[in-house]
């Protein structure tokens, strides 16, 4: 709950305690207690009084922007996107570095990249670093990663980064980081249970239940891209056949476009998208069919988890107008009657959202009631407290 209040103040600006209670749908007594702790820790401050509807004037609460910042990094198969983020969720600076995850020195290279980002921040108070990866992570605090798309199996990402950088480092599946960012800064502020579904190179899903990320027994929950769709279907990167991702992931869409002559033998998803925009019927049918398969699979996920809302985003979202005709019909048709009116929201995309999500791990960790951040969350809290002590000296 404290992280939700920080996110609300960061995205909407100053607010009274009554407004916070109304927007987050929590009791005024809870808001009073939580904001008292945030005031003690120096994360928020009381601003001017505003008139109220009877009774004494209400005081607005706002963020203390000097309380600290975080670095977020999203690791991909060919680059690392890095952002410097303030407590309000505003991206101060973003950049991208080339990266080869299969290089024997890949993790040393990642230490150098993040070390450079730390140096670029100067002496501004750094609470920690969050790293998002496209794979399973044992837990945020240790950060042992298995990511087939990166060629990593039990990669010691967390230990190596913490040793090389000397600051708290939290590592998480990249789609889970987006779900955390939605909870702090986005639509998730107003919902306790929701799904974040990503389309693009792969198909991923972040699951939030009772305002906490559901990670599963080994950190691999949400791999809906590997839901079996067809028998003896195309080979998936996971080694199985007929997975959703093998049908509708970026590589699958491009392969189908090449087979049908929509693009040439070296054509890309950009060419497929352009052809669909130009009205090519084969290109549009490829997207329509992909949307149908996604809608059918997601209906099953909704029946299993019963979310309040579904958010759809990712690098493939630019072509959503071509996915949607197949998706909308299949999604609604395969939902049971009581769930057929479920809202889904399609969000615009920019790559730094991945890295912002990773930074959000750091901001959420001081108030991690589920204990996902472990010892690294404790270290973030210590840095937060030390920074506030120094600012008051």
UniProtKB/TrEMBL annotation:
Domain of life: Bacteria
Annotated ranges, domain HTH marR-type: 5-45
UniProt xrefs under PROSITE patterns: ROK (PS01125)
Pfam families: MarR (PF01047), ROK (PF00480)
GO terms of molecular function: DNA-binding transcription factor activity
Family membership noted in the UniProt record: Belongs to the ROK (NagC/XylR) family.
Name of the protein in question: MarR family transcriptional regulator
């Amino acid at each position: 709950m404290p992280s939700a209040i920080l996110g609300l103040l960061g995205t909407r600006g100053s607010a009274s305690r009554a407004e916070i209670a109304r927007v987050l749908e929590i009791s005024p007594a809870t808001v009073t207690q939580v904001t008292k702790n945030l005031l003690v820790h120096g994360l928020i401050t009381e601003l001017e009084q505003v008139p109220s509807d009877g009774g004494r004037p209400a005081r607005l609460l706002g963020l203390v922007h000097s309380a600290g910042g975080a670095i977020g990094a999203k690791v991909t198969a060919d680059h690392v996107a890095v952002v410097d983020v303030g407590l309000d969720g505003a991206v101060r600076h973003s950049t991208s570095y080339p990266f080869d995850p299969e290089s024997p020195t890949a993790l040393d290279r990642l230490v150098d990249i993040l070390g450079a980002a730390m140096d670029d921040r100067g002496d501004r108070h750094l609470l920690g670093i969050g790293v998002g990866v496209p794979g399973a992570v044992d837990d945020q605090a240790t950060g042992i990663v298995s990511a087939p798309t990166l060629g990593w199996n039990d990669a010691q990402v967390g230990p190596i980064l913490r040793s090389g950088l000397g600051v708290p480092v939290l590592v998480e599946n990249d789609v889970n980081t987006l779900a955390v960012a939605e909870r702090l800064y986005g639509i998730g502020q107003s919902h306790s249970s929701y799904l974040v579904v990503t389309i693009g190179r792969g198909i991923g899903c972040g699951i939030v239940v009772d305002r906490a990320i559901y990670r599963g027994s080994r950190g691999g929950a949400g791999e809906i891209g590997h839901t079996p769709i067809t028998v003896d279907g195309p080979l998936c990167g996971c080694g199985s056949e007929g997975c959703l991702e093998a049908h509708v992931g970026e590589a699958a869409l491009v392969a189908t476009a090449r087979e049908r002559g929509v693009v040439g033998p070296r054509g890309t998803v950009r060419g497929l998208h352009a052809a669909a925009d130009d009205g090519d019927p084969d290109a549009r049918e490829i997207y329509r069919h992909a949307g149908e398969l996604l809608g059918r699979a997601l209906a099953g996920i909704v029946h299993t988890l019963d979310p309040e809302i579904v958010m759809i985003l990712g690098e493939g979202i630019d072509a959503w107008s071509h996915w949607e005709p197949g998706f909308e019909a299949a999604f609604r048709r395969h939902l049971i009657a009581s769930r057929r009116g479920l809202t889904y929201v399609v969000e615009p995309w920019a790559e730094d959202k991945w890295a912002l999500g990773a930074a959000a791990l750091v901001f959420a960790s001081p108030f991690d009631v589920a204990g996902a951040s472990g010892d690294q969350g404790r270290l973030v809290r210590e840095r937060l407290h030390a920074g506030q002590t120094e600012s008051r000296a």
